[in-house]
Every structure is written in C-alpha cells, then in structure tokens.
Protein 1
Amino acid sequence: MQKAINYFHVEGTPVECKVFGHGHINYTYKITTDTGHEYILQRINKNVFKDPESLMENVSAVSEFLRKRVSDPRSALHFIPADGGKFYHKDSRGEYWRVYEFVGGFCLEAAETPEDFYESAIAFGHFQEMLRDFPAEKLHETIPEFHNTVNRYVLFEDALEQDMCNRAKSVEQEIGFIMARKGEAGLLQRMREAGELPLRVTHNDTKLNNVLLDSDTRKALCVLDLDTVMPGLSLYDYGDSIRFGASTAAEDEPDLGKVGIDLDLYRTYTEGYMRACPSMTEAEIRMLPWGARIITLELGVRFLTDYLEGDQYFKTAYPEHNLVRARTQLRLVADMEDKWDEMEAIVREVAQSLQQ
Ligand code: ADP
Ligand code: GN1
Ligand code: MG
C-alpha cells in the first residue's frame, strides 16, 4: 500500500492498492477501501511537470468549471482533499500525490468498435466546447511550449547535435524523414500567429485512454488526464486522437507493415468531434487533416528526441521502445500523406452532411 493514501480524506480504510493504467507519465494506482469505495491515487511525474502545485491549481480549476456544466456528476473529475485542505499531498521526499474518485467506467487502449471511438470523439469535442468560455488567463503553462512543433524541432536538432548516447548514426533514415518535413511542421503555428486559427483552452493529450466510457452504456463518461490543459489549438486535440485511435496498430507496434490510417475510423471520429464541437471555425475545419498529420509528426520527433537523449522522458518497457514508437509515428505520417486526398474529402463530406 502506498503510504500517501493515508493523508487523503477517503471513505473507509484502504485495503487494496494496484498499479493501474497505461499512462506514460504519472504513476497511477487504484485503491479500494473496506467499504468498497474505489479511488485513483497518482504520484505526479516531477521530471515532466516541474511545478506540481501550479499544475494542481489548473486541474482543480478546470474540474470545478466542468462540474458546473455537466449533467452527470461522474463526467467531471472529483478530487479528494488531503490533510490541510489542498488537493495534493507532498511527502517527505518532495513527491506530490493526488487522489480522485474512480467512477464506474473503463478506458481502452484501442477501440473495440467504431462506436467506442465515436464516443471518445464526443467526449473530447464536448470537452472543447465546454471550455470555450474558460478564462484562459487563469491557467499556468504546465509544460511550456508543449505543442510548439517548431520548438520541438529545435529540441530535436539540439539532441541530434549532442548525440549523448551515440545513437544518431543508427537512425539516419528517421532523421532524414523528419528534416524533410521541417517546413510544413510549422504550418498551423504560422496560421495561429497570423490570427487565422483561434487560440483555445485545449486538453493537449487526447489519447483514447484518456477518456472514460460508462461500463453499462459504453457512452462517453469523462475526460481524464487534465495535466496539460492549456491554451492551444483544437486541431492538435483532434489530431492526437486520430494519431492514437485511428491508427491500424498500437503506438508501439514493431511491425511497421501493420501501421496505417484507418479511413473509416477517421470519418467516424471526424463526425463525432464536429458534432460535439459546433464552435469550430471554417479555417479550423479545413485544416483538420493537417492537425492529424502535424501532431503525428511532432510525436515522432518527440519520441526520437527522447531516444537520442537516453529515454529520460517517456516511461519505456525495453531499450528500443522510444525508437519503435518514433518509427510507428513516422510511418503513420507517410500513410496520411499517401491518403491525403481521401482525408481532405472526408472532412469536406462530413462538414457538408452536418450543415444539412
Ligand atoms: P498519465 O499522465 O500517466 O497518462 P492518467 O491520468 O492518464 O496519467 O492515468 C493513467 C491511466 O490510468 C489512464 O490512461 C487510464 O487508463 C487510467 N485511469 C486514470 N483515471 C481513471 C479512472 N478514474 N477510471 C479508470 N481508469 C483511469
Ligand atoms: C504522454 O500521459 P499520457 O501517457 O496520456 C504524453 C503525450 C503523448 C503520449 C504518447 C504530458 O501521454 O504528450 O502524446 O504520452 N504526455 C505528456 O503516448 O507528455
Ligand atoms: Mg494519460
């Protein structure tokens, strides 16, 4: 049992503590008490989130805001206070812990049916729509320049120059692929700076496993993992879901022959997201395929950067894990390029069908 749970005002006495979920960043446990109550206990990753207290201010402000807007109380995270009234506990080693209610739902690593994926689109689209009027100035930037793709290239080129693990030589092909796309990587950012795309309050980590589905109805229940809610582009939220959920293979599939974009799932997600987020502008809608393509490229760059730097950021299960992940992302980008006309046509068709 993790001792930290004792500092939170939970119902009953904790009797079970299990490592839980497949997040790449935090340390997540599921706690059960003798009254049958279930909670999530998390240790915040301080290597990634340098200022956990500001992070918890963001997460509690956003959850509070959402709680007033959802019809089902299970649809907004419910954090449990610790001794002292704060929503975190700092232990003697300086580690930060938090606890929230585990509601009767489940998360998927891959959609079992297109309906599951559609539901995740509804969850994230609705999340975006609800945060339309969230006061962005209240938010701390929990990871500065998180989805600044141009800056991700700067960090990548730094890692390449330093080549601290002597790995660059073995990934020349991947480096070539990334560098050939440096110009287009900044496309959405340039549009944002030119005022052509709105800056919104976005989730910034919209993987399928960051959505909870209802165990009984399999409908979208709650958006999880609010650590990266910050001002950003809705296109990246949409794109990150496509990258993870509309791929024909897992994010770390070693057999690249299996990796590609499933256009049926692409259409499914696009329909759900556009339906749930009607405030999207014409420019946002037109650029949706670019959101998918650029965020996938960005993550390929991030995984490869971490590989070059000796795997310091993402949790890995084996030595080449980040390289495998980088390769799947780059393969997915290549497949999107091949299917580009179809992706653009799908977005146009969905937009038209929703206008009717
Ligand atoms: P990380 O930043 O490490 O991804 P998350 O907050 O996303 O941390 O939690 C990790 C995983 O734990 C999620 O992807 C999800 O599968 C699972 N999880 C977290 N909270 C819940 C919950 N309330 N109910 C069910 N599963 C959860
Ligand atoms: C991380 O925390 P998790 O596992 O939901 C990462 C995302 C990546 C994702 C790739 C804070 O997400 O940006 O897209 O891994 N989160 C952070 O799987 O860096
Ligand atoms: Mg997560």
Note: The chain has twelve helices and ten strands.
Protein 2
Amino acid sequence: MSRPKILLTRRWPSAVEAVLAERFDATFNTDDLPMSPDAIAEALRTHDAVLPTVSDKLPASVFEGEIRAKVLGNFGVGYNHIDIAAAKAKGIAVTNTPGVLTDCTADIAMLLLLSVARRGGEGERQIRAGEWKGWCPTHMIGSKVTGKTVGIIGFGRIGKAFAQRCHFGFGMDVVFYNRSTVDAAEAARYGARQLATVEEVLAASDFVSLHCPGGVENRHLMNASRFAAMKPGAYLINTARGDVVDEAALIAALEKGVIRGAGLDVYEAEPQVPEKLRAMENVVLLPHLGSATEETRNAMGMKVVDNITAFFEGREPPDRVA
Ligand code: DGY
C-alpha cells in the first residue's frame, strides 16, 4: 500500500524528520526557506497532509479549488495563522501540539519579566560596548520583582505555569483575568486569584503578562485605553501572540512613560520588529523563543507524528482542533 504523501513547510528537528521519513512519503523543506501562501496552496493540491508551523500563513484563499490534503498537522499550539473555517469547509482536519511547550513558554515569560525589571538587556549591552564604569550605588537601578503583584491575562496551561513560577518562586501576589470562571480552589493551587475584568487586573498589577490565544477574539486586547488603565510604572510581558497588542499604542505608551517597560517574544508582523521598539532601552526583545528548547521542539514534532499517524490509521488524532 502506498504511504501517505506529506509535506513539511519548514525544517524540523532531525530526529522527528527521521520518524516521518520512515512512516510517510515525506517532502522536506531542505532549504528551510518560508513558503508563500501560493506554494502552500500548491502543496495542499498535491499532498495528503501538509504540516505547517506558526510562522506560515494559511488564509481562506489557500483552500480554494480542488484540494488533495485531508489533514493539517500544525507544529505549534497556536493556530490563528490557519483559517480554520475554510479548512473545515473543505473537510480538512487540523491538529496542534498542546501541553509540551507549557513549561518552556512560562520560563521565557519569567526571563522577560526579570530581564526588563532588572535591566538585564541594557546591562549586557553596556558591558559588550565596553561602557561599564564600575559599581556605584546609583548604577542601572531597576525594579524589585519579589513580592510584587503580577496580573495574568488568560489562565490556561501556560498562564497557570507562569503563575506558579511567580508565586512559589518569587513570592508574588498573582491575580488573573480569564473569560470563563476558574474554580477558586484550582486557582489557589497556583497561588492565584481571579478578578472579574481585564481592567481590574491592569489596575492591580506591577507586571501584566499575556497568555491568551491570538486571532480575532483577542486582537488588540491591549490598546491605548488599556495601557492607560495599567498602574503607573508597570511593565507588559507578551509571550502569547503579537496581534494581542496594538504595537503602535504600545510604542506610544512607552514613549510617553505611561508604562515603564516591556518584555516581548512576539510581534504583530514577525519577523519585522518596529525600529522604535528596537531603539528603546526599557524594552527586552526576543525572537519568538518561547518553545525553543531541544526537548520541547522534539516533543512538538513527535506530537505531530502521533496526530497524523492516528489520522491515517483511521483513529481520532489526539490533538484535533477542527
Ligand atoms: C506556538 O506553538 O504557538 C508557539 O508560539 C511556538 O513557540
């Protein structure tokens, strides 16, 4: 029996590609160059499965016409880059990779919080530029983290893991906003307490960290009025999705001193990062590194293997989202 024909849009960890090559008739992106939506549309017409990742774009237009693909095995937990309704209309199943990137993404949020509060990026730049004049009582004074209040927007797996680190690691008071009510006893396991509105969380927090999904429902959740509702001197951390933040409003809030700083791992138009953000010393910028550890990227890839193997064996894929 012929093996399903699959296409990977980017290079994946080699151990995962080896398993895929054994089980499937696999086309790899050996140059690792991003594929255009047109190239992805062509792949959907010529392969049984396409395995995209979070930096690809799959708008409704890629699903037009005759499609051969029956499943999209997304390498990533977020799937706001895929027009799910259009995929569904063509009878295409979509899977993602939840769970395995929780800890590493929460770790990156903690790294950003600590770096921006304690001016880690600035300090490193100063030393590398050969500009450090030595210790003195007024040098590069940051903001204390231990004991402060952190506000979490979105209390899913990653929000909870981040709360745990903040509360049990740094003695922080943790409040959060979540669309649905979280059982108070469950929240208490993470040292956290739910508030009724985003505004209440913003008003209470020295640090605000975003952990909600991207896409239309949360687009520009952080806008000019929400920045104005933050505590004076507070910081924003974003490891969720770039479109959750109105980047122009963020830049204005930083320029006017409405907020004190930001730690960002995601951007509205990746890989473009606005020049104004790149010029600000009080902003820590990472290139979407949340899940970028050997362990996690291998685990994400193996989740895709499990999902598409189940699909082609006629079983329900464990992480089906559509
Ligand atoms: C995801 O899986 O959605 C992450 O953004 C990748 O790190």
Note: The chain has twelve helices and twelve strands.
